[in-house]
Write a structure and sequence with these properties.
The protein is of the alpha/beta class and about 350 residues long. About 40% of the residues lie in helices and about 10% in strands. It has eleven helices and ten strands. Bound molecules: thiamine diphosphate (TPP) and magnesium ion.
């Protein structure tokens, strides 16, 4: 017998044609929201610049852009504190920037420069910013999930009040290690928050071609992990869910899972909107663009009299200038010396 419940179905959240509720900012600090809007605009401008550099062949490493799904990173990052640890994956530029990672070091990294956050040896998918709490991002799908649980186990054994966050995609829930880690984290009541950015796609494959149900919350339900599902293009909803999850994990209530339903505007890898790894993208993007997380937050702030169109344009111009300056500086930076190659790998 197969039984399903709310944890199995995304419902209207997955349908951009029927879903773009206004964002409710009642009770929120408008100055904080303006700062977070500015941060989302900065992330988007940085991603657009990286996309352009990739398209022109100036950037030579594969880049998985996050344009359209800026909310989960910014919402979660606003709720963690010093001593917490965050792990990302292959689409992690926003995680790095939202946590306060240095923009020039990100651009230098994707440009392969010695001044990059991984000394130009890692590229877009090996980002790190320890001071800001980002303990690493890797390209192997699912690889950081058990490492995050290990860090959470260490925090628990050390009796520290640190929380660990693991960002992953819907595709990563198809890796066995995800399920093993959820079971382990639940069994040992670890202070870890799993944030699944469910953008409905893994590479070119839609969820409906890969899984019997579209919501990944059912995996939390199966392993006795507390879960929340949010509109991943609504910053306020993401912040509220993150507050609850992080507080619960810190208070010893065990692992938490947030599924943030969102959508990427660019293809799986690279700057093009019309292709996922060489496969033509189907319809859907135009309607998802109407659910733009930046425009929706801007609209809510405008409606409450906290923002006008001029201010948003000004944010965009300033971000473009900051990104352009960091880009030009990073491009002048040197490449690593050839002999540095063996300094940065483990070998016997
Ligand atoms: C173990 C492993 N299998 C396959 C790949 C190739 N690959 C890279 S990203 C990706 C899709 C991941 O989808 P998802 O987790 O939903 O993240 P998204 O790209 O949507 O952000 C795949 C299959 C990989 N890097 N690692
Ligand atoms: Mg995905």
């Amino acid at each position: 017998m197969i039984t399903t419940d709310d944890s199995h179905h995304l419902g209207k959240l997955a349908d951009s044609n029927s879903y773009w509720d206004p964002i409710n900012i009642d009770g929120e600090d408008p100055r904080e929201l303006l700062d977070q809007l500015r941060l989302m605009v900065l992330i988007r401008c940085a991603e657009e610049r990286i996309g352009e550099g990739f398209g022109k062949g100036v950037i030579r490493c594969p880049c998985h852009l996050v344009i359209g799904q800026e909310v989960p990173a910014v919402g979660l990052a606003s709720r963690i504190q010093k001593g917490d640890k965050v792990f990302g994956a292959h689409r992690s530029h926003a995680h790095y920037l939202a946590l306060g990672g240095d923009l020039r070091k990100l651009l230098a990294e994707v440009l392969g420069r010695d001044t990059g956050c991984s000394k130009g040896m890692g590229g877009s998918m090996h980002l790190i910013a320890l001071e800001q709490g980002l303990y690493g991002t890797v390209p192997i799908v699912g690889a950081t999930i058990p490492i995050a649980a290990g860090a959470a186990l260490a925090a628990k054994l050390d009796k520290s009040d640190s929380v660990v966050v693991s960002f992953l995609g819907d595709g990563a829930t198809e890796e066995g290690v995800f399920h093993e880690t959820l079971n382990f984290a639940s069994n040992f009541q670890l202070p870890v928050v799993f944030v699944i950015e469910n953008n409905l796609f893994a590479s070119h494959l839609h969820m409906s071609l890969r899984q019997p149900f579209d919501s990944t919350c059912r995996f939390a339900q199966a392993h006795g992990v507390s879960w929340q599902r949010v509109d991943g293009n609504d910053l306020v909803a993401m912040k509220r869910a993150s507050s609850l999850a992080v507080c619960q994990a810190r208070a010893g209530a065990g692992p938490q899972l947030i599924e943030a339903v969102t959508y990427r505007w660019r293809g799986h890898v690279g700057d093009r909107e019309d292709q996922d790894v060489g496969v033509a993208r189907k319809e859907g993007l135009e309607s998802w663009k109407k659910r733009d997380p930046i425009q929706r937050l801007a609209l809510a702030l405008e409606t409450s009299g906290r923002l006008d169109e001029g201010m948003l344009q000004d944010m965009r111009k300033k971000s473009q200038t900051v990104v352009a300056e960091a880009w030009e500086q990073a491009r002048l930076d040197p490449f690593p010396a050839a002999e540095a190659l063996l300094d940065r790998v483990y070998f016997k």
